[in-house]
Amino acid sequence: MICDMIVLGTGSVAMTIDYTAEIAKENRCYNFRAMLEHHNLILNPLSIETLWLNITRRCNQSCTHCHVNASPDRTEQMNRSVIDHCLEILAGYDSFKNLDITGGAPELNPDFDYLVVRARKLNKHVTVRHNLTVTIDGNPQTGESKKYLPEFFAENQVEVLASLPHYEQGHTDHVRGPGVFEKSIHSIRLLNAQGYGKVQDGLILNLVSNHDGPLIPGDRASLEARFKQELMSKYGLTFNRLFAVTNMPINRFRLQLKQSGTYDEYLSQLMGAFNESAAIDVVCRSLISVSYDGRIYDCDFNQMLGMQITNQEPMTVFNFDLEALMRRKINFTSHCFGCTAGGGSS
Ligand code: SF4
Which ligand 1 atom lies nearest to the CA of residue 248? Predict the structure, then answer.
């Protein structure tokens, strides 16, 4: 059964939606595997270098495009026992070079600092998918301040991958909520003050932009040049690279597309923009994704659809088997067109 809880925003009603049958139908219309066959592409795992942990579904924001359906009301988070198992896996296999931490806002998990410090002691490269505003807002449930984060990131040489949909306030606030742009600018300023985003071999601050609707991002390099020019000239801010991502047609964004009657149009657009080189580079070939409860998936998107990897039995960090993971067939379905459209986005 493929289902998830849809939480439309703070204070709104949560619903559990089972869309197994719908997805099966969509897979026939928007057939990713057939597209791969048409291009003679066999996308097997290459090597598993990154452990991508989703350690909480709680967030201080409830963005319109969020594929996690994260919000301040979500309570799921990875506990210390699962975190310790993940650290044992990182320590036990040389192939794992990187730890990629995401959420929700991963910094809201009370064991976030513990995880980062221990992974760095294991000499792993640590990347945090950071929403910028958590530094300013703190923990919405407990009121705990998160103002120490820029310094903590710098001390531990964490790579920061931060969401900023656009360099214009209106666009960013439309996607992420009123006031988000201003807080994000303040937060980038604090990161720059720690030395982030200044040089290519120093502390890395990369930004992630996305459209506020069903559109495929344009040319990445020219968008990056525009972001750099606007953020420097208006606010004196710097960063390293810009990634432009496609909104994934799942969960909250999928519901919006369905409600506005644009779902099929968007899927056709993504399918029509299939890019062979982007397909060869999809991230699921070099990572595995772990949910808060220790289940293992091909990526964070498949995780949100409940498409757990199975090897005779469902795979978790408790029955971890790297060889079986390397032999697996990746679970590609129609939403994978979101990773292979245009310049690619996964
Ligand atoms: S959505 Fe599909 S193509 Fe993209 S990373 Fe996940 S499994 Fe791979």
Answer: 1
